[in-house]
Amino acid sequence: MLDPVVIGVITFVLASFIGFEVITKVPTTLHTPLMSGSNAISGITVVGALIATGGGADTLATVLAFVAVATATINVVGGFLVTDRMLGMFHRPRRPDDEPGGGS
Amino acid sequence: MSPNLRALLYLLAAAAFVVGLRRLSSPRTARGGNAIAAAGMLVAVLVTLIDSDVSWWVIGAGVALGALVGAVAALRVKMTAMPQMVAVFNGLGGLASALVAGAEYLRSDASTLPAETMVSIIVSVLIGSVAFTGSLVAFAKLQEIMRGAPITYPGQRAVNLAVALLALGLGTWAGITHDPLAFWVGGAVALALGILVVIPIGGADMPVVITLLNSLSGLAAAATGFVIDNSALIIAGALVGASGIILTNIMCRAMNRSWTGVLFGAFGGTAAATGPASGSARTANPDDVAIALAYSSQVLIVPGYGLAVAQAQHALRALSADLEKRGVRVAYGIHPVAGRMPGHMNVLLAEVDVPYRQLLDLEDSNALMARTDVVLVVGANDVVNPSARDDPASAIYGMPIIEADRARSTVIIKRSLAPGFAGIDNPLFYKEGTSMLFADARQALTDLATSLAAV
């Protein structure tokens, strides 16, 4: 049986490679939504914050967990919403001849 | 719920993040991708709520507060203020990860924690803390609460290095001895480190800082994933970490700087190497420029952040719509550092309804240059400076540029001949075929549209 931390390291390394592969395909036009969107994804730490609210009556730990839930939620809700708002602005040209370049 | 099912559902969430990011490869699929990633987040949250012993009132209060603040910020933020907002969000993500690790530390008996969990907790607290305060300073600079100029003092590098080593040392000490004081002081030193590292970085280098902090917020989340042994956090954190690193590299390449140079060296000092370029600039009036534009077949607009400062995006869009009605093909050449964060200018133009296919990156802009009749430079300077290509003595030598000097003619809208941010003179201003339209960007574009109507 593998140690959980080893499984974690394997997961981390493979996910990093997937990240590099996927992110290099994002065009420069979408780099700002990429940043806000990936920011929302890093809000996954909300899972840790939710778990941290339970188990034990340590007051300071409860305060930390509360702040963690609030800040991670800002990240998730704000991040996905602002990304959606931005991506909604990107649209295709209304006429096909709006394309730049090309000789005529 | 069985641990296996739980693990698979977390994997589903992580897969949704990968698919969401994959769909960002085209503006057509990007919005749907964002929704998929958000759905993945919802799955992860629901699984956690169903399966964990949680405190509902703490969560209720925290989520209500966070959702309200997040939604209001997301819906009200101006597109010009996006860099500040992303900086704050990065910081909050880092803070949340650090706090989760801190709460985990408080709840456990440190002496019984396995060594690898203790290491993960410390890494998460250190990275998360640096990301938090570093982002707040970046926010303050971008929001102009703080001066954007670098804040430097003698021995700064040595101090920063010492503080970084102190944070690492305290973290290591806390890991070995389980001394709680070392743990908390280490966290506090990391908070100070975030401030100290970002204050010497100037406004022009902010895009690199934001992308680096983006990466750190992801890495902090991954470290927290090790603390609570959760694959969704590890995968998501790794994805975001990779994304931030890629964007950091792109920004550094676009500015011809190394990330160590950005972090450890303040910009400037070599600008004196370039003397003022010789020759005189040709001044044009709006009527001349309007005629030149109207009889072009291809116009390339090169916008810089000065466009956003003058709030001239709408005027620019109106002018290009008029040109398109006349059968002129219009494209926008966007340098990676045209805005204040990667892709920022693209968003500012998308906001005023410029179709994304007209937004060309550096390579495509330069490929179009030989067929371009007029390049219209609005609020940009250094990104079209041929010295970066031709003059090895120039401070910006080696920085990739939009080669406006290769087009048939260039029109530069600018308030005066004053050099740009880097303090470097621009030979393009004095080149044959270049004319200067001295005016405020918005006024100039409005005047051009008026003159164009009369052509």
Distance between the termini of chain B: 73 Å
Helical amount among residues of chain A, as a percent range? 55-70%
- Rg of chain B is 25 Å
Q: How large a portion of the residues of chain A is in β-strands, by DSSP E?
A: under 5%
Give the mean pLDDT of chain A.
Answer: 88
Residue runs with pLDDT of under 50 for 5 or more positions of chain A: 96-104
Oligomeric state of the chains in view: heterodimer
* Pattern of helices and strands of chain A: HHHH
Keywords:
heterodimer, A: about 100 residues, mainly alpha, about 65% helix, disordered C terminus, B: about 450 residues, alpha/beta, Rossmann fold, 3 domains, six-stranded parallel beta sheet, 17 helices
Molecular structure report:
The complex is a heterodimer of chains A (104) and B (455). By secondary structure, chain A is mainly alpha-helical. Chain A has a domain at 30-89. Chain A is built from 4 helices and no strands. Chain A has helices spanning 4-23, 31-42, 46-52, 59-87. The longest helix of chain A is centred in the C-terminal third of the chain and has 29 residues, at 59-87. Chain B has 455 residues and is of the alpha/beta class. Chain B folds into 3 domains: 1-71; 87-267, no CATH class; 278-454, TPP-binding domain (Rossmann fold), CATH 3.40.50.1220. Chain B has helices at residues 3-22, 27-51, 56-76, 82-107, 115-142, 156-177, 180-198, 206-227, 231-255, 259-264, 286-294, 305-309, 313-325, 344-351, 362-368, 387-390, 441-454, and strands at residues 298-303, 329-333, 359-360, 374-378, 409-414, 434-438. A 6-stranded parallel beta sheet of chain B has the order 3-2-1-4-5-6. Chain B is elongated. Chains A and B meet through α1, α2, α3 and α4 of A and α1, α2, α3, α4 and α5 of B.
